[in-house]
Specification:
This protein is mainly beta. About 10% of the residues lie in helices and about 25% in strands. The protein is built from 5 helices and 19 strands. Strands 1, 2, 3, 4, 6, 11, 14 and 19 form an 8-stranded antiparallel beta sheet that branches.
Length: about 450
């Protein structure tokens, strides 16, 4: 089904982007600068990104038959059946052009999703080198030190990329085309003040200064809360004035006077992320395989696993065996995961960051354990490793300055399936005018999920 492109300019240009991450380095060892060569060595050689989003539903699995977890997800895959009113499967692909700039090479430039307490979305990220080879596994290498078993506290640190890599999912304010100040907005391109402006204790806006890193022009008269419309020309002028004396001067534009006011920085946006969406890590081991698949040979670490079922990725890539004392906790990598959207009628940039975390150990004895992304809460450091914690999907530290890649994916939450079906239909038809009311009812309101029974799917 062709989607309507009759959208206000502020919406049409909210596209996927790649941005640089510029934070102060304190406790991080900076990763080597990426480079490209014909013979590709190392996961830094990301040439193409493929982001796949599938509508998904959660199933209870109290016996842990699918993944040793009390639940799993069915995510609906691409098929050649009759098109659905809203997409079940969406794909955005970006690649480096001749100048080394990342550009969208797929027909789709943003994801359209529906907020729902029953349905969620499964996100899968695939990274390719310049030769078209899938290199996700290069982020998940884990090697025990020579002479050590997986149960022992001992890593071959330099060769264990799993210890230092983690994806984070937050909010960004830039687009692929370099569109600045693209904070979360309503469908008619109005800024949402809570996710845009820095305020004083009473809720008042704070005037911009030469020290403020990002600012938005606001009319000196007649401004209403949540009533500021995005304007590309004003955004560009704001960028031009940042860190200059003119940042505090009035600007005359189309017959009105404007002043610059401070916007939220990326770390303030990170903390607000759970209000808009949350993300659950659901990586698999091996990371490039699908949950539930039967392995036929060795995995990417050379382990003989013929006949084993692909399970969820666990700490230090531990495979559960009798006598381990319990299951290893899940490993937060972020190649696969579940997104739940909390608000409808909102447009935002979903920022994906691949952090290369090299934290310093607290003491010499723990060098082999407190390395990279792992922390300790004082508990047991043997299986089931209840003394180890990792960062949540939106917890990016200000002290980090090493990221393999950062890029926003544009998302439109076009409707709310938790409300009346009449409102859902009306909202969906703003973007998909031919959407069938009967099919939308079957997709989001039937208790038996029968609408999806004959559709291809994968497990998450």
């Amino acid at each position: 089904m062709n989607m309507t492109r009759q959208i206000l300019p502020g919406i049409a240009i909210l596209l996927l982007a790649l941005t640089s991450c510029k934070d102060t380095m304190q406790k991080i060892v900076k990763a080597p600068a990426p480079f490209i060569e014909t013979v590709v060595v190392g996961h830094e050689q990301i040439y193409t990104v493929q982001a796949i989003l599938r509508l998904a539903v959660r199933h209870a699995d109290p016996a842990g038959e699918v993944s040793d977890e009390p639940y799993y997800f069915t995510a609906y895959d691409l098929d050649d059946q009759k098109p659905t009113p809203v997409p079940l499967y969406q794909e955005i692909k970006i690649s480096k052009d001749e100048d080394g700039n990342m550009t969208i090479v797929s027909p789709r430039e943003h994801f359209d999703v529906v907020k729902s307490s029953r349905y969620c979305y499964a996100l899968e990220l695939k990274y390719y080198d310049m030769n078209g080879q899938l290199i996700n596994h290069q982020f998940t290498r884990w090697h025990a030190m020579e002479g050590k078993s997986p149960r022992d506290v001992g890593y071959d640190d330099p060769n264990s990329t799993l210890l230092v890599h983690q994806h984070f999912f937050t909010i960004d304010n830039y687009s692929l085309a370099g569109l600045p100040i693209a904070f979360p907005m309503t469908p008619d391109s109005l800024y949402i003040d809570r996710y845009t402006f820095e305020t004083d204790g009473g809720g008042g806006l704070l005037p911009a200064t030469r020290m403020s890193q990002a600012n938005v022009f606001v009319p000196t008269e007649g401004h209403k809360p949540n009533g500021l419309r995005y304007d590309y020309a004003l955004a560009l002028e704001s960028e031009r004035r940042t860190s200059t004396k003119s940042v505090e001067e009035t600007y005359r534009y189309q017959g009105r006077d404007y002043r610059l006011y401070k916007t939220l920085d990326s770390y303030a946006l990170n903390k607000l992320t759970p209000e808009i969406f949350d993300y659950e890590y659901r990586d698999t081991d091996p990371v490039e395989e699908s949950l539930g698949t039967v392995l036929e040979d060795q995995d990417d670490l050379g382990r003989i696993r013929t006949g084993h079922i692909v399970n969820l990725l666990r700490f230090r890539r531990g495979i559960y065996e009798e006598g381990d004392g319990g299951l290893y906790p899940l490993e937060p990598m972020g190649m696969k995961g579940i997104l739940n959207f909390k608000q409808s009628d909102i447009l935002f940039q979903l920022k994906v960051s691949i952090a290369h975390i090299l934290t310093q150990p607290s003491n010499a004895e723990s060098t082999r354990f407190l390395f990279g992304k792992y922390m300790t809460n004082g508990g047991n450091q043997a299986p089931p490793f209840d003394g180890v914690t990792t960062y949540r999907s939106h917890e990016i530290s200000r002290s980090w300055n090493s990221f393999d890649m950062c890029y926003p994916i544009s998302v439109r939450v076009i409707a709310d399936a938790d409300g009346p079906v009449e409102r859902l239909v009306s909202d969906v038809r703003r973007y998909y005018p031919d959407a069938s009311e009967t099919e939308l009812r079957d997709m989001f309101y039937r208790e038996d999920n029968s609408y999806y029974r004959r559709r291809p799917s994968v497990l998450f």
